[in-house]
Amino acid sequence: MTDAAIPDTAPDVEPDMTVDNRGRGCASGIARVQRALEDLSDGSVLVVQSTDRRAKREYPQLAEQTSHKLLAIESERGRLLRKEYTTYLEIHHQ
After folding, report:
1. DSSP one-letter code for 43
2. C-beta contacts of 20-27 below 8 A and 24+ residues apart
3. Cα–chain-centroid distance for residue 36?
4. Can you give the pTM of this predicted structure?
5. 41-57 per-position pLDDT tens digit
6. Residue 56's closest CA among 83, 16, 79, 93?
């Protein structure tokens, strides 16, 4: 999925769970995301907050390699001139 194909506006849904990975690299934060994915049922929405710029690459790859649907990735300037990313995933177990 290219950056242009990724929606950048939050969907109008209430998240079922939020994982705050701000300040963590995607590699260390992905374990927390995997645990959350296991705990959520089909149709649930997971929000992942991150400061790692790889979020725009890693989470679309996660969605492509699984049955989960990437709903959007928002990005905005946070504190100390760093960007913050908010990823929305709709959960679908095979």
Report:
1. T
2. 20/49, 21/48, 21/49, 21/50, 21/51, 21/52, 22/49, 22/50, 22/51, 22/78, 22/84, 23/51, 24/50, 24/51, 24/52, 25/52, 25/54, 26/50, 26/52, 26/54, 26/55, 26/58
3. 11
4. 0.87
5. 999 999 999 988 888 88
6. 83
Of the candidates 8, 29, 22, the one whose C-alpha atom is nearest the C-alpha of residue 50 is 22
The Cα 31–Cα 25 span in angstroms is 11
Contact 40, 91 (CB under 8 A): yes
28 CB-near residues (< 8 Å, 6+ apart): none
Give the Å distances, CA to CA, from 81 to 10, 51, 71, 76: 22, 11, 26, 10
**pLDDT (tens digit per residue) in 19-42:** 999 887 656 788 889 899 999 999
88 strand-pairing partners: 47, 72
